[in-house]
């Protein structure tokens, strides 16, 4: 859903024809995207799609080989300093200094942004409070849990009250409860008017937070639109069976194959079979009839609209969650530049 503030506003992020090569690898192959001021743009794509490369170019950490990128009307190459002064970045991997305490980490970043000592301290205190880290403010960051580090990392990117915030997989590695908390922080920031570009492997996250989405694969945009537009593009319904033992899945899939309009998906771990179907309850009745004799093994049955995971699967040929390689936000040494 578009935030009302988004309507009629100009674009805070403009990317046109972006190309980036690493030796023989083309990481970006002509990417175009825009994000309206005050909106949240979700940048989705499997591992290696080019998401981080887009973020690094927009945050001036990397130069493109062709194309242009602007943030708040400023060219990321020509006006790099001005861009850095108006953005915040939370990179894919945590950039907190392990040996500094929470408050020291934030003060250091505040000083990098040229805040006065007292101002940096005040802002650090405010952010620690807001991110539920006040109680741990005086402990070295190495004693923090993964979720606390991630929160500290995001707090650091907000020190200078950026108008545009880049979040590269902000909740990877967080447990479900911490993830919910992070979503609330991000939604609050968006409601406060901050423009946000968010990359994520969690499609529910994009669905919850993003006004619009751009899906990239192999460095090219393969789809864009609101969540509803993307779901409508995939269309139909999903018939889903959860069974008591994965052993019966192949046989069930074989019996139902004729009902599916596309390849059925089998998730052995979840003991679940998902069939793209066109039609409603009559398909469900037909399916149950074909499964006569398996009633004891069927644990749950449902008919639902496609979700973003189905969209992702249809577009890229693989599931989003399976594409995630790393559950833990890895730690890198703190960046000692103007941009984190
Ligand atoms: N410094 C580098 N040197 C060489 N190749 C690179 C470098 N950085 C990225 N690549 C390649 O560029 C492509 C895009 O990488 P990028 O990190 O932007 O993907 P991503 O969408 O962020 O992936 P992930 O979901 O794993 O974070 C990949 O093929 C990657 O191997
Ligand atoms: Mg990445």
From TrEMBL:
InterPro entries documented for this protein? AAA+_ATPase, ABC_transporter-like_ATP-bd, ABC_transporter-like_CS, ABC_transporter_ATP-binding, DrrA, P-loop_NTPase
Under PANTHER family, the record lists: ABC TRANSPORTER ATP-BINDING PROTEIN, DOXORUBICIN RESISTANCE ATP-BINDING PROTEIN DRRA
Q: Which Pfam families match?
A: ABC_tran
Please report the record's description of how this protein sits within the membrane.
Answer: Peripheral membrane protein
Compartments (UniProt record): Cell membrane
Q: What is the protein's name according to its record?
A: ABC-2 type transport system ATP-binding protein
Ranges where the ABC transporter domain occurs: 13-243
* Source organism (scientific name): Geodermatophilus ruber
Q: Name one GO cellular component term.
A: plasma membrane
Classification via NCBIfam families: drrA
């Amino acid at each position: 859903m578009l935030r009302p503030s988004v309507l009629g506003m100009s674009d805070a992020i403009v990317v046109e024809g972006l190309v980036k090569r690493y030796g023989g690898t083309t990481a970006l192959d002509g990417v175009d995207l825009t994000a309206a001021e005050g909106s949240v743009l979700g940048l989705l794509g499997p591992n290696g799609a080019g998401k981080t490369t887009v973020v690094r170019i927009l945050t001036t950490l990397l130069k493109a080989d062709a194309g242009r990128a602007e943030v708040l009307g400023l060219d990321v190459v020509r006006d790099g300093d001005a861009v850095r002064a108006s953005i915040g970045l939370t990179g894919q991997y945590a950039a907190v200094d392990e040996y500094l305490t929470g408050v020291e980490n934030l003060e250091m970043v505040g000083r990098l942004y040229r805040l006065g000592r007292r101002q940096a301290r005040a802002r650090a205190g405010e952010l620690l409070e807001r991110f539920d880290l006040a109680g741990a403010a005086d402990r070295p960051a190495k004693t923090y849990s993964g979720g606390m580090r991630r929160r500290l990392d995001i707090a650091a990117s907000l020190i200078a009250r950026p108008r545009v915030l880049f979040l590269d997989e902000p909740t990877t590695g967080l447990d479900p409860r911490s993830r919910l908390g992070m979503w609330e922080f991000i939604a609050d920031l968006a409601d406060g008017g901050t423009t946000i570009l968010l990359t994520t492997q969690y499609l529910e996250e994009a669905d919850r937070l993003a006004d619009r989405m751009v899906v990239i694969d192999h460095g090219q945009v393969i789809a864009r639109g609101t969540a509803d537009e993307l779901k409508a593009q995939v269309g139909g319904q999903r018939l889903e069976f959860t069974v008591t033992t994965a052993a019966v899945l192949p046989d069930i899939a074989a019996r139902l194959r004729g009902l599916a309009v596309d390849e059925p998906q089998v998730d052995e771990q979840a003991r679940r079979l998902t069939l793209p179907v066109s039609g409603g309850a009559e398909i469900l009745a037909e399916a149950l009839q074909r499964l006569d004799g398996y009633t004891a093994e069927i644990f749950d049955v449902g008919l639902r609209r496609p979700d973003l995971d189905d969209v992702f699967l249809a577009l890229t040929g693989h599931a989003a969650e399976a594409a995630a390689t790393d559950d833990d936000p890895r730690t890198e040494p703190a960046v000692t530049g103007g941009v984190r």
